[in-house]
Each structure stands twice: as structure tokens, then as C-alpha cells.
Amino acid sequence: MTLLNKKHHIEKVYSAVAQTNCAMTDSVDAPVLCSWQRSMNQHGIDPADAAQVRILTEREFKEQAEAAEDFLRIARPGVRDLFHQVSAHGYCALLCDHNVTTLDWLGDDQQVREWKKAGLYLGSIWAEEEEGTCAVGTCLVEKRPITIHKGEHYRVINAELTCSAAPILNPFGEMLGLVDISALHSPASKDSQYFALQLVKQTARLIEAAYFYHQFEDQWVLCICNNREMAVVNRTCLLALGGDGIVLAADQTARQQFGGGIYKTMIGRDIEDIFDIKFDQLIDLAGKSEMVWPIRTITNGAYYFATLRSPQAIALKSIQIRPSQKTKVTPPKELSAAEPLSLDLLAGADHRLKEIVTRIKRVLDKNIPILLNGETGTGKEVFARAIHNASSRANKPFVAINCASIPESLIESELFGYKPGAFTGALNKGMQGKIVQSNGGTLFLDEIGDMPTSLQPRLLRVLAEKEITPLGSTSPVPVHLNVICATHRNIQDMVIEGSFREDLFYRLKGISFVLPPLRQRTDLAQLIQMALAIEAKTEIGAISIDKEALNLLTRYDWPGNIRQLRNVLRYALAMSDGDRITSTNLPEEVANQERPALLSHIETSAPKKMQPVPQREQSWSPMEQAERTIILESLKKHQWQVVKAAKEIGIGRSTLYRKIEKYDIVPPNKR
Ligand SMILES: Nc1ncnc2c1ncn2[C@@H]1O[C@H](COP(=O)(O)OP(=O)(O)OP(=O)(O)O)[C@@H](O)[C@H]1O
Question: Has the ipTM of the complex gone over 0.95?
């Protein structure tokens, strides 16, 4: 790039950012302009900054690659295929994790120096916060495929590149990573990258499908297509089904096609309520060949073609029995004896938890601090105990302290202990603090986000120096400390706000995990049976739950997670005749929960019940009308704040803007 062109690029960025909103300008696309504004106003990046793209250290790279091991293993072959298609045209291919770090790279080895110089190499971090507008970082923010072509890059140093990236989502709609192809030189017109973007999108969809099949390898996977011939090769529009025909997960296409793009409206539903199929018949025939079944939606009778992949374990044995006819499971001894649950038992059949447990087992005795994140009641403390029990320290003490429930003035003495007469009101014989009590065992710091800022430096010192000086004492006591922390807060945000020390955060977060909320667990039906057995102190399956009650329980939102589930089951047991739970035994909030707007709409929009619709709405399908209702309700609920509504509905902000426009939704202040 000539000096003059560089100057021109920088001036263009400054003048475009000076615009007050993200409306189209003559020469810059709206999403690019929005990203330029974020880059300058939020991230404070200088477009003239010529520093090279940041690269992770070897150790950091190793840690991140290890954390994303499963994803990398599944995604790599897809990225390799993509690279073979584009390498002759001067592209390299990048596979990034959800931290936008390049964890795999394929490119022409002859040009390695140039790729490295451009930051298109292993370990490079393409975050919008660091680089400004760039395909990978901006794709992460926008949550949709994007090409950033030449001068659309924010920093002048990247303004020769052309890059196209697409997000890769897990079956729960969360970002797993991104795939990108980039070239050092390309024609001036952005149109030249149209097919590059399509290829990247296609690869991302394929990887998502591979990941979906992997995640649900021990479940039934229904694959739906609108064309009989393509059905056997189709790999999108996937629904994972439990042995009882309940939907456990749905990929993006299935969510859009049958759930108005909304995750919650699909999960926990009986497949027989969505399609006019008998799940029993379907699985009796499954596995006999690559069979394709015509199926019809209950809502509007539209025809599709489906194939069914059997659970791997069953496929291996070549299906003889229906999974739902499995023989009764004897509850693990530890359940009825009310002993602590093991890690494997806590993971149940939930795919994310199983992955977490595998990773935890790897770090068990390596003295790596563990940070457990998760909503209230997701079982963080139970998990921490299970980690302790699985470690070689199991016969040493497990000492828990809840930083939120102890007054700030007492936390210090509780944690660090004190010598006799250290302060007025102190016990005569002094007190051993929790840290010393946990010596050699595990110290569990619950609600670590509530640790007073004044005490954070002291805790940091203990962790670094492995010795502790009780209040009123001058001689330090050596401690062998293993720490597990838990919080429902976003500590990273607290670090940014300045209410939590960054150095302490990194010290405590040797490895971190997010325990999934109950509504996202893929084994909810099994977990309910398990929790019921615990509450009733019986065998799993000894008390039955009728279909309607199970439907209500699996569909409920569970804001209080497992804690709330156990309370509800305890209540239901008390209300029941003792060996069968029905919907009438459930507490009101579960029994009379409002059907999600989309579901209730779908039911009333079945052909035989269809209501006349206003003139303008007749051009929308029932699904679209339902979607409009959901969006409208959510916007009203959140006082028309788009970010909050998008979050609740589970779609990106820009998607929501598009839909608002599509459905002629006008906020009250613009009427
Ligand atoms: N897998 C499980 N099966 C049965 N019961 C469980 C399971 N996990 C947790 N529980 C129960 O759920 C309740 C909440 O668990 P726990 O206190 O560990 O959650 P938490 O995430 O630490 O909650 P909080 O954030 O509110 O402190 C406890 O009664 C616990 O025994």
C-alpha cells in the first residue's frame, strides 16, 4: 500500500466514524461502519497503529488448544477440505476458537513468512477489541458470516487483506469457534469474494453437523429434508431425540424451520407433537437401511423427508429393543445412602457435563485452581465436593466458605484465623482460619465474586506464597492449598469494572467451567427420574411420572435449577399417592406454566383450527405470525430494548433488527 493510500484509508475511517449513527454511507456498508465505530469509540484503537497482530505465547496456545481439543478434532477435517478447494487461489484457512484465537492454520508453506507477518498464522488473535474491524472478530460480534475486504479492515496494516469468516455454533446455539479463509492479495471488488463466503458458510454448517452427531452419538438423530432425493446426503436440519421421542436439541436449520428460530420452543417437545409420525414405528424400522420416510408437520401439513440415525451403542448391537423399554436401572448405592455424588453421576447423560468431567479428571491432582461458574442451584458446590472426592486428597478435609453469606468484617478472621487477643471480642484461645483447616485438602470459596476488594490482595498473597499469617501474629504458617471457587457472576466483567482484581482472577481461574442451567441439559428427563429416586429414596423408575407431568417438567424453565427441581419433586411426592406422579401433583408454577408463545400459536394455527388473520398478516406463514408475536411480546417486556429482547429470544441483535423491519414492528416513540 502506498503512503498516500494509507493516508486516504485513515482519513476515510475517521470521517466515517464521525457520523452519528450506523446508517449507510455512500462508500461503507452499515455493519462495517458499526464495527469501525466500535473499534474507535469502544476499543480506542488507532486505525494508523502499525503493530503486528498479537500472537499467543507457546504456553497460552497449548492451553487454549487443549481446552478446545474436541472441537478441533471434529472441525479440522472440514477446514482441510475447504483449504484444498481454495489454496490454488492464494487463500489460507484458519480455524479459531470462541476466543478468536487461531488454533489451526493451513496455507502455502512457501509463503509462511508473509502469512506470519500478516498475522494469518497459528496463535494469532483476531479479536475486534484488539484489531478493530476484521472478518473473524466482527463475525464473532455479529454472529453471522461476513467478508471484510481490503480497506474495510479498520487498521491500515490489515487493509490489503481479504478475509471471509463464518461462525460455528454448538447444538445449543453457542459459539464454538469460527472458520475463515484469507488472502494477501485479491481483486479490488468485494464481489470477487462472494463464493469465498459461500464456501466458508458451507464448511461451518458441515462442522456444526459433525459436532451435533458427535454430541448426540448415543441418542437418535432425525435429519429432515424437503426433498426425497437429497434426504440421504443431507446433513442439516437435525433433531436429537431421547429414547422416548422427546427433542433434546435442534440445529440452527431445524430451529428456524420448525421453531421460529427459537431454541426453547423445540426442546422438551414430543416429536409426535411436531410431526405426524409414530416414534415407535420409526425406531423399529431404523438402521435397516438408509431409509427415507415422508413426514408431515402437525401445524400445516407440509411434507418433508426424514432419515434416522440410531444411537451408536444400539447401532452396534443392531437394534433389538426400544431404549424406552430398557430394564429398570438400580440406583447407584451412593444415591440412596445420601452420600456425595460422583463426578460421572453428576454429569449424567448431559453432553456438556460429560465433556467438563473428562477435562476435570485430567487436571485432578495437578494443583490447578478450578473456577466453577453457573446459575444458582446448578450444583456448583456438589460438583466441587465431587472433584475433591475424586482427587487423591479425598481423605483430607473439604472446607467450604460462602463469601456472600458472611459479613465482610468476619470474612478475614474466618479465612485467615487469628491469635488469642488479636482484637476485641476474639476468642481467648484464638481461631484457626478456614485456609489452615483445609491444609492438604480442598478450600472451596463459594460466591468468590463477593470477596471484599480489601481482602483480595491478602488472598492473592496466600496463593502465591503458600503461607499464611493469622491476624495478630507475625509468624507465617506454611499451607498446602488446593482451591476450587464458584460464582454465578461474570468475574471477567467485574475485572473490567474494577471490582475484582485481575491478578487474583487469573490466579483462581487455572481452569474454568460453566455448569449448564437445567433448561439446557440434554438429559433432563433422566435427571428428573434420578432426582425423584433421591427424594423418594427408591430405585430409579420405581415411581412413575405420567407423560403429561413429564412434559410439564421438561418444558419448565427452572430458574432455580436442580435445587428448585428437587423442591418441586419433594412437593409432588407429598401430593401423590406414592407410586405415580401426575400433572395434578405438580405445584402451580409448573402445572400452569404459560406455553411458550410460539407453541401455543402453533397449536392454534393447525389447519383445522386456523383463525382468520388481518389483511397484512395473510402474507405471513403461521410460523412467521408466531415469530412476530414472540418478538413483539419480548420487546414490550423489555421496554423496547433490542439487546435485552434479542438475548431473551436467543437471536443476534442484527437479526432482531431485520425481523423488526420485516414484521413492520414500530416502537411507540416512532409511531
Ligand atoms: N446432579 C444432582 N442430582 C441431584 N441433586 C443435585 C444435583 N446437583 C445438585 N443437586 C442438589 O441441588 C441443590 C443445589 O446444589 P448446589 O448448592 O451445589 O448448587 P449451587 O450451584 O452451588 O447453588 P448456589 O449458587 O445457589 O450456591 C442441592 O440441594 C444439591 O444437593
Answer: yes
